[in-house]
Amino acid sequence: MEQLATLDDLPKHYVASLTQKNLVPLWPSLRNVLPPNQPIPLTQTTVWHFNEIKPLLLEAGELTPIEKAERRVLVLANPGHGLENMKATSSIYLGMQLLLPNEWAPSHRHTPNAIRLIVEGSGAYTTVEGQKCPMEHGDLILTPSGLWHEHGHHGDEPVIWLDILDLPLVYYMEASFVEGGDVQKVIGLDAGHRYAKGIVPTLHFMREKSDFPLLRYAWTDTKQVLDALANDPSYGGAAQISYINPETGHDCQKIIGYSAMRLAPKEVLPLERRSAAQVFHVIQGEIQIDINAQSHQLQKSDTACAPCFAQIDLINNSPEPAYIFVADESPLQKKLGLYSTRSRI
Ligand SMILES: [Fe+2]
């Protein structure tokens, strides 16, 4: 494509008079906003090791009481976006949150959608719209846009979870805000018990919340399905599941998509190149992840992100199966008609 003129090619007095009138010439920036053939992502491949996060998070527990933090979180920030912007990718926020025994993170609701993936510890819970969801290792809990949620802890050890939000996108749209609320009245069985198996207590079945009928996806159920797929010779594909709304079959949330996969010992899984940035988090086991020809070792509870159209291979060099949680921007891109895949290089 033709090289275009730059700002320096214009007389200074002309540029000054444009600026004074809130005008900007397009052509010096045209190749930046419309790069040829594929995007130029700010998102850099980044890895966060849990054994480096955990001591700093526990130290935060000593430095800052929950009342002064409201949510005690260390944000996993991508240097490509500037750490202060608190983005893992253009649309995805990642935070590692700590709740200590007997602490309570007060009820609130906000416009960004959030999920929690439980990383370590036991005894905490999240109450969403009155439904108390236990937080056990590997569980996925949804706190969608506009739903009241609070976190409590009856146990005796620190609980740490990974927060994933579409905050960067919602903030960019100038649509991000929060409201504080009162302690929620718990209305009985947790969401998983209500809806996970397709049967519901008739008295409490709330059709008006059917956008999010299932709020907790228990890891014990997910792992069981992944193991069954891996051990079924007739299945013949990668052992991967998608977290969906069981009523509609659509993605469980509207902007970020969630899935999980199992890599058998010695399995190598080449992924297709996708227009959506992706986040990988190790629930159990360990893997090597090759992103654009750079190898990274991920242990249990480590997290990595990869930019759009990255060439990615997941490799399990260990004698044990590995279980990986994946978040990506594909639901958003599909709704906007922007999603595509490309063949591997
Ligand atoms: Fe929240």
TrEMBL record:
Gene3D superfamilies given in the database record: Jelly Rolls (2.60.120.10)
Molecular function as annotated in GO: dioxygenase activity
Keyword vocabulary terms for this entry: Dioxygenase, Oxidoreductase
SUPFAM superfamilies, per database record: RmlC-like cupins
Pfam family, one: Cupin_2
Top-rank lineage group of the source organism: Bacteria
Cupin type-2 domain segment(s): 97-164
PANTHER family the UniProt entry points to: 1,2-DIOXYGENASE PROTEIN-RELATED (PTHR41517), CUPIN (PTHR41517:SF1)
Listed name of the protein: Cupin
